[in-house]
Amino acid sequence: MGLELPILWLSILMFGGLGVLLLLGLPMAFCTGSLAVLFLFLFGNSAMLNMLPSRVFPFMTDYQLSAVPLFIFMAAILEKAGIIEELFDVVYKWLGGLKGGLASATVVSCTLLAAMVGVVGATEVTMGMIALPAMLRRNYDAKLACGSLLAGGTLGILIPPSVMAIVYAVVAQQSLGELLIGSVFPGLLLSGMYVAYVTARCYINPKLGPALPPTSASRLLKSSSFCAAR
């Protein structure tokens, strides 16, 4: 239709419409896709509307994108098999004696999980159901607990295998292997800095993340060593 509208009002209408559709409970893909088609029809022309399928289908037929559903499937398998819970339990048993050990274990578990699945949503939801209640039960500061969970969960977009890196490689026509290799060190560096920050904050103010009592920590460590030996 080619309607003209200032960029300010166009942005307000676009983001406002996105918020309304999300509040209605529609999936993200349908929200963004329908808004894109609607705004192209109202404020664009027929050439721009015809350009949309010609840009979408070449990307969707790229063989590199086949790794995305496989990573999501692997995350679903790990969740249903209970491996994620056992991974978090083992890491916490080793770090429980430190101040803020549960928050540090959350970051480490998120890092390991990100290296398995490469999906941020799977890491955030799964660790949020496991780690957050455990930290709150042990009187951890709510801000520190949520911060460690969110910071560790976002490592999934950086540490290989990363779904975001796959999509970026396809869109930008860059080497996927080079992107994955180049993101290993920054991801591990961020994870180490998160753990160091949490540990330092909890040693400065032990009320933020109390450590396990020595007897409980030693008991957990012995049980984890026994399970590993078995």
Tally of distinct domains: 2
**Could you list the spans in which at least 5 consecutive residues all have pLDDT below 50?**
217-230
> Can you count the beta strands?
0
Report the span from N to C terminus: 70 Å
Number of DSSP helices? 12
Q: What's the multimeric state?
A: single chain
Taking the sheet with the most strands, its summary is:
none
Radius of gyration: 22 Å
Shape: elongated
Sequence of secondary-structure elements: HHHHHHHHHHHH
Structural class determined from secondary elements: mainly alpha
Mean pLDDT: 78
Strand content: under 5%
The helical percent reads: over 70%
Textual characterization of the structure:
- This protein has 230 residues and is mainly α.
- Helix 6 (101-117) runs antiparallel to helix 7 and helix 6 runs parallel beside helix 8 (142-153).
- Residues 217-230 have low confidence and may be disordered.
- The chain folds into two domains: 7-58; 66-229, no CATH class.
- It contains twelve helices and no strands.
